[in-house]
Amino acid sequence: MAGKTLYDKLWESHVVREESDGTCLLYIDRHLMHEVTSPQAFEGLRLAGRKAWRKQSIVANPDHNTPTDHWDQGIKDPISRLQVETLDANIKDFGALVYFPFKHANQGIIHVIGPENGTTLPGMTVVCGDSHTSTHGAFGALAQGIGTSEVEHVLATQTLVAKRSRRMLVTVEGRLAAGVTAKDVALAIIGKIGTAGGTGHAIEFGGSAIRALSMEGRMTLCNMAIEAGARAGLVAPDEKTFEYLEDKQFAPKGDQWDRAVAYWKTLQSDADAMFDAMVELDASMIEPQVTWGTSPEQVLPVGGRVPNPANEADAQRRVGIERALQYMGLAADTPIGEIRVDKVFIGSCTNSRIEDLRAAATIAKGRKKAASVKQVLIVPGSGQVKRQAEAEGLDKVFVEAGFEWREPGCSMCLAMNADRLAPGERCASTSNRNFEGRQGAGGRTHLVSPEMAAAAAIAGHFVDIRKPF
Amino acid sequence: MKAFTQLTGLVCPLDRANVDTDAIIPKQFLKSIKRSGFGPYLFDEWRYSDVGEPGMDCTHRPVRADFVLNQPRYQGAQVLLARDNFGCGSSREHAPWAIEDYGFCVVIAPSFADIFFGNCYKNGVLPIVLPAATVDKLFKECADTEGYQLEVDLKKQTATTPSGESFAFDITPHRKHCLLNGLDEIALTLQHADEIKDFEAKHEAAQPWLFA
């Protein structure tokens, strides 16, 4: 019999019962929550007179609606404020292991605070009413985004009704060149397999280039698994994982730690495990990536040119390219390096961790943003990230470069708060989605790494950070 | 949950691939703490030429006349015909809420994004996967025939065209049972509460750190 994949091991260790058609009740260890996708779930519980099955599984905080400046003035938008206050009230009524209300010193993006306080651990099942829950797969946890009805189901039963996914292995072997990051790896993979390439699959990322990534890099990569269509991304836990977790507040301690690590070391795909799909990339061939269109799969190396629809044989794809170029206000064959940006956003659950900010600061140090760039927002992923960055003086580097140093939150990744693009504005963004209107109605998004975003802020247009600019 | 059994409904074709949930219902409408009232804002940026805000009365907003939902021949449509990877992106269940609230009961596409696909079932919306060539044929027939309707029968798992051509579709027995009967899935799961408790006890014994 063939060995088991990491995904299978995680799945099988959480099956409470299985129906004859393969539908399972899957036990959920960690339930992350934010204010946008939870109010209707709590309301459903109330209406049915139900309680939370295990409130100690809940880690929550508001992040989508919270402003990133003038915290002393509170949340100005009354609808946003009500949603945040509703989360406060729901957690008060139903309970939680961890809750950081708006303005708490540790508040931040839920996918940043889970790992940094040790509430995300290898071997767990993790859910959140948020598609970027895939982030937590970086720890070897089976983590997936769910809808609000499922949030209610997990609250009430501690289980998820689900069927096993197919397994995909994406292997990246070799060394990444200087200036090429986990974000570029993620975008290169999506460029190769497409935004539906991972649909129906859980993707395990392996190979020497993945093992060489830091935990922050692995989180960036798994975060983007959903942009390849995969509900879950996974990296097998290793010494880096254990080192990251040791001494985190909610990580096991003493004997428990030793026992946990011994178990976590078994969380690897067996050498003879079978995958339903395999994809391979050569790390040395991956260049800094820039999206040019309105889907993350519409991506090119920085040295490339915007595609010409006339060269596309498939009619539906041609129409897709034409539509994307029109929305993006780009002419066919434009060199990526000639695309000028109006705004830059460095943040989001993809790229707002300390390593991301250090990388951006390295580029910004001693330089100034281009006069043509209207605004550069640096939005740390959490209060902890913000304090760490300030302790290292990164905030000063950014401010001296003419960037704005903000309070933590989701910010202009999806523009639910006041941080957004105006119609027609073009943005270099470290976030995860370049969909039409994502960063503000009519806004134009180019997805890049933190280094590439910082360089675009300085130069006023995209530049190849592997070369002097 | 609302049950779904059978429907004969007008088809509205949305001819673009990779329609994401940000397009289905833009972020500003996600500030609502309710489950209803999203229908008027379905596909808001494609449907209206101004920028929509929550609570806006949509009856007097300037519309984009060329968008399918605004075309007179598709008014009252209950079946949305779509292309590959429909519902990709954000997990927001507001997307099927908006689709259902607008009046669609069925979405047909060659493929769906996983989270959206699952969310539909929880809201009495039936997502049907048909082969790309079949979907293509339906797009053509729909364009050629004003008032084009499909008969969708969940018990028989078929979608039938006006000419009587019938296409079979798959659905898991569990989902079919829940949808046909409009079952409360939580109540269904809680029938197994003892099994969940037994599992939990064993799980805690094996990995106590998960319960600290």
Automatic annotation (TrEMBL), chain A:
- Which residues are in the Aconitase/3-isopropylmalate dehydratase large subunit alpha/beta/alpha domain? 8-460
Catalytic activities? (2R,3S)-3-isopropylmalate = (2S)-2-isopropylmalate
Describe which pathway this protein belongs to, using the record's wording: Amino-acid biosynthesis; L-leucine biosynthesis; L-leucine from 3-methyl-2-oxobutanoate: step 2/4
Name any Gene Ontology BP term.
L-leucine biosynthetic process
- Which CDD domains does the entry link to? IPMI
SUPFAM superfamilies attached to this UniProt entry: Aconitase iron-sulfur domain (SSF53732)
Cofactor info, note text: Binds 1 [4Fe-4S] cluster per subunit.
What UniProt keywords apply to this chain's record, in alphabetical order?
A: 4Fe-4S, Amino-acid biosynthesis, Branched-chain amino acid biosynthesis, Iron, Iron-sulfur, Leucine biosynthesis, Lyase, Metal-binding
PANTHER family per UniProt: 3-ISOPROPYLMALATE DEHYDRATASE (PTHR43822:SF9), HOMOACONITASE, MITOCHONDRIAL-RELATED (PTHR43822)
Q: How does it assemble?
A: Heterodimer of LeuC and LeuD.
Full protein name: 3-isopropylmalate dehydratase large subunit
User: From which organism does this entry originate?
Assistant: Candidatus Methylophosphatis roskildensis
Gene name linked to the record? leuC
TrEMBL record, chain B:
Listed GO CC annotations: 3-isopropylmalate dehydratase complex
- The EC number on file is 4.2.1.33
Q: What's an example of a GO molecular-function annotation for this chain?
A: 3-isopropylmalate dehydratase activity
The annotated pathway is: Amino-acid biosynthesis; L-leucine biosynthesis; L-leucine from 3-methyl-2-oxobutanoate: step 2/4
Question: Gene3D superfamilies under this entry?
Answer: Aconitase, domain 4 (3.20.19.10)
| Sorted UniProt keywords | Amino-acid biosynthesis, Branched-chain amino acid biosynthesis, Leucine biosynthesis, Lyase
Q: Write down the CDD domains for this protein, in alphabetical order.
A: IPMI_Swivel (cd01577)
Q: Where is the Aconitase A/isopropylmalate dehydratase small subunit swivel domain?
A: 1-132
Spell out the reaction equation it catalyses.
(2R,3S)-3-isopropylmalate = (2S)-2-isopropylmalate
* One of the GO biological process terms: L-leucine biosynthetic process
Family affiliation? Belongs to the LeuD family. LeuD type 1 subfamily.
Its annotated function is as follows: Catalyzes the isomerization between 2-isopropylmalate and 3-isopropylmalate, via the formation of 2-isopropylmaleate.
How does it associate, per the subunit comment? Heterodimer of LeuC and LeuD.
Q: Entry's HAMAP family?
A: LeuD_type1 (MF_01031)
* PANTHER family in alphabetical order: 3-ISOPROPYLMALATE DEHYDRATASE SMALL SUBUNIT (PTHR43345:SF5), 3-ISOPROPYLMALATE DEHYDRATASE SMALL SUBUNIT 2-RELATED-RELATED (PTHR43345)
**The protein, known as:** 3-isopropylmalate dehydratase small subunit
